[in-house]
Write a structure and sequence with these properties.
Layout lengths: L7 H22 L2 H13 L8 H30 L4 H26 L5 H30 L4 H29 L5 H25 L15 H18 L4 H22 L7 H25 L1
């Protein structure tokens, strides 16, 4: 008797086509609660949501703005404390405070979209620290306007909270890089470091000019003396200049930055009562603005 056989390839195809159907039928026969438990267990076993490259880049840029604005708010406050009746100086503090609040709001939005984990926890701490910082800034400004001098205790508290904010932002930055695997552009990072360093220096210098006592309460993240930071900034600026020597537009911008730096460099390296704080602050702000412009242009092409 002849037995009709099926090619092995066809048999394999038929069997494989039936497997999903059989599995689906078996799944349908399971209690709904058991199916839900199986699906939930499967989802929970998946890796936690990680930032993609674009999200990581956006987060790092925003954390940089938080750190930068934190420095500039303190710097603005110290300059305002020198002349409490100066409306222009107060306007600077208001502007910087609004910029900081905007960046914190953006961080809050980003944190809400992340799953539970170290990064979300660290980002979620920033709004609370900022709230405390904003309240202390408001109280310190009110004291200046009413008494024409600072309350040393409140200034110390504000400076410490600002330092906490900068440290928390830097911690979140490191965690974001580790969690996402994102590698920031080297040149962008160098420009950010140089910007933050200049801001730290000018904040310390303004604190020193405002009061001999406030030197202890500068609110900067680094405890390095100004003269040491100045030498480091000079080194960073030269390194950036060398790295961007082939970029015509960047070289022009850096030449302008060098001119401003040359004008105030000795004031940072050898700070004394003969230096004019207004001039140092003016040119330091110019350097920060030009570094930020250069940073924005490079970020668009990186």
């Amino acid at each position: 008797m002849l037995v009709k056989t099926m090619p092995s390839s066809s048999l394999t195809k038929e069997v494989s086509n039936k497997r999903p159907v059989g599995a689906l039928r078996a799944l349908r026969r399971l209690p709904l609660t058991l199916v839900y438990a199986l699906v939930t267990g499967l989802l929970s076993s998946l890796p936690a949501h990680a930032l993609d490259q674009a999200q990581a880049a956006d987060l790092l840029a925003t954390l940089f703005k938080v750190r930068s604005s934190g420095n500039l708010v303190m710097n603005g406050y110290y300059n305002f404390s020198i002349a409490p009746g100066d409306k222009d100086e107060r306007a600077v503090v208001t502007k910087r405070s609004e910029e900081l609040a905007g960046s914190i709001g953006r961080i809050n939005e980003m944190a809400a979209k992340l799953e539970e984990g170290p990064l979300r926890e660290q980002l979620s701490q920033l709004p609370a620290i900022h709230k405390q910082y904003a309240a202390l800034l408001k109280d310190n400004i009110a004291d200046l306007i009413e008494r024409q001098y600072s309350d040393i205790r409140l200034v110390a508290d504000m400076a410490q909270v600002n330092q906490n904010l900068l440290t928390a932002a830097e911690t979140a930055r490191k965690t974001a890089i580790d969690a996402s695997g994102y590698q920031p552009d080297v040149m962008v990072e160098q420009l950010r470091d140089a910007t933050l360093l200049m801001e730290s220096m000018m904040t310390k210098y303004s604190a020193r000019s405002a009061s001999t006592v406030s030197q202890v309460f500068q609110g900067a993240q680094s405890d390095e003396p100004i003269d040491v930071q100045a030498v480091e900034f000079d080194r960073q600026l030269n390194a950036i200049k060398t790295a961007l020597s082939g970029n015509t537009d960047a070289s022009k911008a850096l030449k302008s930055i060098e001119s401003s730096w040359f004008f105030i460099k000795n004031s940072y390296i050898n700070p004394n009562e003969n230096n004019v704080s207004y001039v140092v602050n003016l040119y330091s702000n110019k350097i920060v603005d030009k570094l930020n412009s250069l940073l924005q242009n490079l970020s668009k092409t990186s």
